[in-house]
Amino acid sequence: MLENLLQALIFIFPAYVANGAPVVGVKLIGRATPIDRGAKAWDGRRVLGDGKTIEGLIVGISSGAAVGLLILLRLPQLYRGVFEPLTLSAGTILGDIFGSFVKRRLGLKRGQPAPGLDQLGFVCFALALSIAVYGIPAWLDAATLISLLLITAFLHVGTNYLAYLLGLKREPY
């Protein structure tokens, strides 16, 4: 099981990078163009809000894919194709966008917490998209998945708090 968990953590690392990179990237770029361009949904609320940006989307997917390609060079057997890290990164961003969409429909404002959705939505979408395209990875079993989700939740909380302390985020969650 420990070997499977280690494989899972390395496998999913591009998703972790894709999830965190937009915060740093948008700060460095100094510009943030909302994906929804201010559009409102049927409920009168923003579709996504100001937190989901074109720049963040590009930085997230490209950063995650680049890290994944570096992993692929070192551990070529880990991924089932050269585009799997890109698939994981795109799934991550789609999951994050979906989470924002759901939060807006629930009436939650940007930065308000949605426990579970905030910590796990991105990784669930990343895995789901990867599985849809490439099939189930050899390391995936119930115990490994549960462990991966628990570790992801704790890492997400910790890295968000660190980003808050560094002034990259307005909220510590």
Return the average pLDDT rounded to an integer: 95
Element string (H = helix, E = strand): HHHHH
Radius of gyration equals 16 Å
What is the helical fraction, as a range of percent? 55-70%
Q: Based on CA inertia axes, which overall geometry fits? A: globular
What percent of residues are in strands?
Answer: under 5%
- Largest pleated sheet: none
Number of discrete domains: 1
In whole angstroms, the N-to-C terminal distance is: 30 Å
Count of DSSP helices?
5
Low-confidence stretches: none
Pairing-aware structural class of the strands and helices? mainly alpha
| Strand segment tally | 0
Structure, briefly:
With 173 residues, the chain is an all-alpha fold. The protein has one domain (2-165). The chain contains five helices and no strands.
Features:
mainly alpha, single chain, globular, 173 residues, 0% strand
Task: Tell me what the structure shows.
The chain has 173 residues and is mainly α. The chain has one domain (2-165). Helix content is 65%, strand content 0%. The chain has five helices and no strands. Helix 1 (2-29) crosses helix 3 (84-105), helix 1 (2-29) crosses helix 4 and helix 2 (54-74) packs antiparallel against helix 3 (84-105).
